[in-house]
Queue: 2 jobs
Job 1
Amino acid sequence: MSEIEVPESHPRYQSLLTRHRIEDGVKKGITSTQGLIAQGRGEAFDYLLGERTIPSADRAERVAAAHLLLAEQPVLSVNGNVAALVPEELVELAEVTDADLEVNLFNRTEERIHAIVDHLHEHGASEVKGTAADERIPGLDHERAKVDSDGIYAADVVLVPLEDGDRAEALAAMGKTELVIDLNPLSRSQQASTVPIIDNAIRAIPAITTHARVLQRASSTLEEMRTIIDEFDREAILADAERVIRNGSD
Amino acid sequence: MSEIEVPESHPRYQSLLTRHRIEDGVKKGITSTQGLIAQGRGEAFDYLLGERTIPSADRAERVAAAHLLLAEQPVLSVNGNVAALVPEELVELAEVTDADLEVNLFNRTEERIHAIVDHLHEHGASEVKGTAADERIPGLDHERAKVDSDGIYAADVVLVPLEDGDRAEALAAMGKTELVIDLNPLSRSQQASTVPIIDNAIRAIPAITTHARVLQRASSTLEEMRTIIDEFDREAILADAERVIRNGSD
């Protein structure tokens, strides 16, 4: 038994746990109205994908892990939905890849930023960025442009879950390597991504951590990790996910 | 200009109006957390359908109108989402087809029932059922089974928007004609429906009203309306919507 009164073997375990964590996120002021609607949109695409990590998404997750490990300054951008759904898993991925966590919200309010920072601390995070907000992403309106100068602004690799399309494009225009988790392969965020991860964040975040651990354990050389990155074909990944969604099978 | 500061000619008018009404529904205590997630799931399927009423959905809406006009005791079941999105349109459909409105919630709380009843009254409804809750749909647990004895319990035809799968099946088991508005053709609700309406409620409700008006104006005989109903092929409607979602075109 875990935080919900259902054994992990239950066929609807993941769905019930997701629902519980989202409800809890609403109570804590972490998840916004638009975040809940976005959650539903994701669930529909996940349903069409078969609520599983398709093989091409697993390949993208391995490449994302290589990017995070090779980065000079990797940052995991945290919004209300992933904070509610996978707080511990985000902290773990940040530790394994030596990345910073930065809270970055589409509908930014100081209350929600602080509620999310507190929530991440409760789940083991030491430092959480996002409260300084002392720099701006060029080309976005004021509120949505706010980032930390020593966080997303300076990062070379950013993992963005369910990002707003405008901001995903603006980050790409800054030349950053964007690892985008979004279940809609046709979204503007995925079109702007360096590595499109078309998978549920609840599965994707732990999967990237596992790949990072395996790459570290195998003592992969920089050269080997660069090869993994160079051989990655993002167009093929996008096309594969769309094909599975349209056809309903691999 | 209407309730939002955007002209109706704006390409994102429907989307912005939907967002505004949903946010307003949250503020008024009408829309629930699960309702917001369901809204998002619907948006994703609507996106794949091209955010339009596909021709087969229009045929289903005409058949739904015929069912409501021929019914002895038609009831429009109202949940938090449709109450927030199309309150006036529901009242108009109820008037045109001489149907009752009954508030019926998956996550039933007395506060939310009363907030929705008030909201419908503000939008022109005279009588709204759902507060008596003096009967039970067989086969469901207590809270979800509650209905009015002179409303859904006694109805021969029920229009249900975005119904929970268990309740859709339980209503079908009672022998009711179920007109189900749900954008997912694979949902258990649509599998249990008599008439699957695979369209956004924001388009479907006014479309059913228009069809009902046309059928009335043409002084269609009972026989003609029965023919419309008899010629309806629900399997073809379900298959057509799934094909459009999968293939992206008609």
Job 2
Amino acid sequence: MFSHNKRLQYTVRVSESNPGLANLLLEQFGGPQGELAAAMRYFTQALAEEDMGRKDMLFDIATEELSHLEIIGSLVAMLNRGAKGRLAEAVDSEADLFRSLQGAGNDSHVTQVLFGGGPALINSAGVPFSGAYVDSIGEPTADLRSNIAAEARAKIIYERLINVTEDVGVKDALTFLMTREIAHQKSFEKALYSMDKSFPPGKLPGDPRFTDLYVNTSPGEGDMAGPWNSGEKWQVLVPSDKNTPLDGGEGTASVELASDDKAAVDAFAARGASNPSRDPVTGADLGVLSQEPKDQ
Amino acid sequence: MFSHNKRLQYTVRVSESNPGLANLLLEQFGGPQGELAAAMRYFTQALAEEDMGRKDMLFDIATEELSHLEIIGSLVAMLNRGAKGRLAEAVDSEADLFRSLQGAGNDSHVTQVLFGGGPALINSAGVPFSGAYVDSIGEPTADLRSNIAAEARAKIIYERLINVTEDVGVKDALTFLMTREIAHQKSFEKALYSMDKSFPPGKLPGDPRFTDLYVNTSPGEGDMAGPWNSGEKWQVLVPSDKNTPLDGGEGTASVELASDDKAAVDAFAARGASNPSRDPVTGADLGVLSQEPKDQ
Amino acid sequence: MFSHNKRLQYTVRVSESNPGLANLLLEQFGGPQGELAAAMRYFTQALAEEDMGRKDMLFDIATEELSHLEIIGSLVAMLNRGAKGRLAEAVDSEADLFRSLQGAGNDSHVTQVLFGGGPALINSAGVPFSGAYVDSIGEPTADLRSNIAAEARAKIIYERLINVTEDVGVKDALTFLMTREIAHQKSFEKALYSMDKSFPPGKLPGDPRFTDLYVNTSPGEGDMAGPWNSGEKWQVLVPSDKNTPLDGGEGTASVELASDDKAAVDAFAARGASNPSRDPVTGADLGVLSQEPKDQ
Amino acid sequence: MFSHNKRLQYTVRVSESNPGLANLLLEQFGGPQGELAAAMRYFTQALAEEDMGRKDMLFDIATEELSHLEIIGSLVAMLNRGAKGRLAEAVDSEADLFRSLQGAGNDSHVTQVLFGGGPALINSAGVPFSGAYVDSIGEPTADLRSNIAAEARAKIIYERLINVTEDVGVKDALTFLMTREIAHQKSFEKALYSMDKSFPPGKLPGDPRFTDLYVNTSPGEGDMAGPWNSGEKWQVLVPSDKNTPLDGGEGTASVELASDDKAAVDAFAARGASNPSRDPVTGADLGVLSQEPKDQ
Amino acid sequence: MFSHNKRLQYTVRVSESNPGLANLLLEQFGGPQGELAAAMRYFTQALAEEDMGRKDMLFDIATEELSHLEIIGSLVAMLNRGAKGRLAEAVDSEADLFRSLQGAGNDSHVTQVLFGGGPALINSAGVPFSGAYVDSIGEPTADLRSNIAAEARAKIIYERLINVTEDVGVKDALTFLMTREIAHQKSFEKALYSMDKSFPPGKLPGDPRFTDLYVNTSPGEGDMAGPWNSGEKWQVLVPSDKNTPLDGGEGTASVELASDDKAAVDAFAARGASNPSRDPVTGADLGVLSQEPKDQ
Amino acid sequence: MFSHNKRLQYTVRVSESNPGLANLLLEQFGGPQGELAAAMRYFTQALAEEDMGRKDMLFDIATEELSHLEIIGSLVAMLNRGAKGRLAEAVDSEADLFRSLQGAGNDSHVTQVLFGGGPALINSAGVPFSGAYVDSIGEPTADLRSNIAAEARAKIIYERLINVTEDVGVKDALTFLMTREIAHQKSFEKALYSMDKSFPPGKLPGDPRFTDLYVNTSPGEGDMAGPWNSGEKWQVLVPSDKNTPLDGGEGTASVELASDDKAAVDAFAARGASNPSRDPVTGADLGVLSQEPKDQ
């Protein structure tokens, strides 16, 4: 069960109104690499986790991400606070308010008109948060790798936001949030490798004929060698008519159909058969040729 | 530029019609861990990649994933082929066709009615493929981790599909596809660690005050120690009134408002102020009390 | 800032595995009327709220909804726990596992195959949670009404789930969750009517010509009178050529165009003009008539 | 059945081309609080309504909302009409056309390039209309509250749009549309309270132990009292180890598993168990340490 | 402006409750080829149309599609009416209600639990209606072709639904709806070819080097000739190193960068450069090798 | 199976950095009329096609569209290349970087901050690519028409992009891509009309009472005659009380309910019945009237 402390985990001190910057920060509120996605990624994993140690860690980090969601949301609310008041109370002329929504250095019209300046579950383009951002699949050898990657991505988004922020207080809070992603990545890395075996993920082994095979499907000039395709552990194959399909078969797709199924498919095929020897007049032809009115 | 060979990379031999199984396989055609998501993840990275070695690798693997999309799509098409013919030609009674769409062991009504049995860009629940499944962000230290995680997740989904498949030919093709995810994960791992420095991701360092801090936000009974929160590299903090906010500040959110902004916010606040001393009659009260018709 | 207690707000005691029921319960985990939508609705409002009393209330209820999200998620995890193990470890035959995913009384294939039985941010049809479910717009006279309505809807979904649940422990937890929606609705009702003026919502008054007008756009047999369209406060209008448009104008849409804009629109119109006196041969005609191959 | 009159319900007179304003107005065409969402909310309720009076009202208001959709769509079409012609006929230089799409005070590139200046089923950020905006659930005690809230939200969005509109004709039409939302809200309020009992919504009563309970989950400094949590009808609880879980139980989640299920879960847990006493080298470590090329 | 007549355009007589069939019919209520998509496709085109004849036609057909939306919605409401009552009033045992939601021949749990049996803006899989289904782009030579194709698709979906419907009254109404799609397609065909020139669509001509070129990108065994790639109007090209790129250039992508841009890109590339001569230990290696606890 | 050649099908030569233009071009990378949608439309059709000629054509064109996706993605990558470097390496001041993201003539903040300047599966508004863009339904008489319409739409979007592009190299590549849509449309037209019968689409004939009927649902002033509603093949009907419903019935919706179903529906109706003779006090009334605090 959760409880809330009205104090933030990190103090938010914004220097001045800036709805355009608020808009950018929404990327980490309701965007794919944002704090809600992070919190829900770990929270959903925690609920079904069987290992008590990881479960504890997942609840710890999920809860901290909720506190970070509160920080980034507070930044958005403060950056928008003045604009919110001006629009709601209509203290400026309509022309001034219109310009303030769409002028240079600002793209906050959705935030202002639709959400009244409050933090909304959207990214910086106005796209609603999606549960599809959460890629938990209930297998720790995969989920921990997803968490590591998610922390890496979130770190980068914060880095980019810091690079475009002049406001000292905002930059300070963003740096805190960015740093915590680094710490969380370290925890998830430790958790992954404290399992006895994490590769290949899951339980089933691969087919040994294909586990060390690198298929050079983009061959020719520009081919490069690196540890990802060269060295003793790799067998490299440039596909050709001789070595493909990889199973040695004919490379077709087939299904055994019951006789009545086959009859139905044949009827379907016959109905839709094209006649390759016909060169028909087409709609494109009709659209080019000027047709005389029929009533003439 | 791409070219196509009409032979598949791996031969598809399906034993019998099975629209229910086709429906499950759509998970890897148009689902979040599916082959289109994989192909597009690597293809979009390849287009913007600056390192010629990784670019070559990304094109190689992206192209192979397109061939895998063709394999899984061919499996779906073959499993649905008989059902497609029967529905299009209406060879059975309406009752039989209705039952075949919704009977036990089958949930393929969307695939059949909407898509005519063809492979569609949906997952096994009928949710359309989304570009949001592709988490490329243009920074190799993050993208390669995303790729590693994505391959791990895809491997697991194939493993689960294999576990529910009786058809020998389908199982064989799925095992091939699963194995290739293992090989691809290995390539991405090699590429990640062949960079001089991949951690922390990106360029900006973290704030050293917070990089080794583990915040125990779910404290108490059930707390567990592990390498993710214990050992010399971790400083553990149980949040309390004394040690939070972590910046030592007051934990509030504030913004410096221009005076006219402040006036507008005050007006907005005054207009919406609640009167805590009032105990009003509410709509809930009205909904409980029987009101006499006014015209009586 | 948030903290977590590993104990639930309400104990979850599930009688037996039931992935089909788990699937239904997802409606209140990641669905439109679910607990995450509720928590985020109040949390986003709290962040931008100017009235300290309502802000406190919104944080209280948002936080409780997170605890309810944990309860419903724990119900899902427990109901799926056995099935998760069986599929991951492949302890049954493939045929049995396939049947268990799709048999009568069960529609949990997405939950099992894609999410491994963990609670996922989807509704009971597998549609991902959307930020669009959160209808906060930053104006308390509207948001509180949205909250009242949302609690009413959530209460009904719980009622329906209770009606289809045989498991005593699940029913008990659902009844708790349903009851809390009633209590929350009462709080939001009190908050709405403790404002000095909450109707019309916002600041701008309506145009008095149209505030008491009821337009009978579906006139004729079946017309009914009720307090929503009859009584002294309503003026009823059946639209006719005489009384519409309601502004007394000509009912057209027009724009003053600059002369060069007008010229461009005219050119556009001329290029796409249809010739009503032509009765052309069409693609439909071509598709009916058998065309002789041209090369004959 | 519907019929259409080529005259609008309210005359649209736009003063000049303004694609930027057209873009904002799309919020009420294809946005969450827009006229299509409104029309469909009431129309879907009308179709399944059992009370003939409400059914009549719902058809009346749904049909009027379609006429409002036509008004707002006509405003968009007129505001974009000049720009549409210029882009389609390429009457300006490419540079001028590019600037006109993206210059200050304008964010209409999606509307112009993708939709050719026509009104599109998107909101002002370009997000496609979603059926998820329609929150009808088929229970009048909930649906009428949803309608009341939806009208309140729509009124506010119109108010904000009016505040940023200088064009007298546009402002006039928007004021009409805003006013009608007020009238509709009044009708829905009357309909709600003309039921004998509308609270609690639905049929099932709540559990009396929890209907008057207010849980102070965000306790401490800043706690405020108001009618939503104080007075004789409220029992307030600050959660503590003593009074939670609220059912008096142990606060855990449990399920009775069949023995073979239990064995499968145990196997799953064992396979994924973490070893807390291991302090492993991790991928983060590998990413920091410079690795010597192996071939040296 | 719209008006409504409480009588349907076609009488709906349903023989018996059938929520499973109701669920399938939702495909044409809120699905991609459904009546709302059709109505909105033509309505949005009508609003911006410059040709008065087409505008009239588009309003006529859009309005009729709204009447068809009412018919298909009424079918859904009637098929669900009994089930709605049973669930809302809980007249059966919980087990019976659960089975009725998920039993063989039925997949209506979303419709029942979330929407209470009312017609909802979803397709038969529960996916919400999307504005993205409406492909109007504001150019008549394209939009009319989109309309023709949309009518063809809708005709096919109705045909499939008819094939799985036993209920005589439902089949009768569906046949009416299917037939109207045929009539509408004919109207749109006439409108397309009554323009002086409709091909190529739009205003700009193509580059004559590439308008009659067929690129055989999937060459080899299985190549087929047909009017789409053979005959005097086609020039066929099998891509090879000699004839590609088609512009005769080097086939690379390049950009002229300002010197400071170039420096920044170089720095970015250097930071992320991979070292192809390194064969690093990777996370996959760590996941295979059993690591000894460090504290030993 | 696919293979890749590192050379593009058409050489991309971009004159200078232009992230704003890159943003617009995304419309054809991840937008509804873009190259991925095209490739997937034809690829999914090819997989299930029964006619070997069309199957070959569909693979040819699908593969070429993938090569076009590579061209448009390369254009985006080149146009963003400088900006990517500047933001990642933070070579400018924060203020300059902020302005570069949001200044006049640029709306690329999503592309830059979230995707790091790489081509992303979004449209020009930042909306993720959706599988719903692909309207293949597995019936060639419908799918070929969808393909024709899709090519027409794509041609128009390219035409608009060309109209706003000053960069000679970009314009050249866009003209190539636009031209190929013309060629593809011609192929699909030929394929459609080389079938023996393509109208009406599918197998079932229409009901002859309704195939030649034009319903004038928007009658009155402004009615226009054209080949779509006049001439010998059309029967025109202006709906009136006398000639509707079109089946000659009563125009109601009805269902035969089992007696227990009927009892449940009656109970549901009774519980929710409105009392039309009551004129209740409502929440709107409460929100207008100032309520005295109860404790006074």
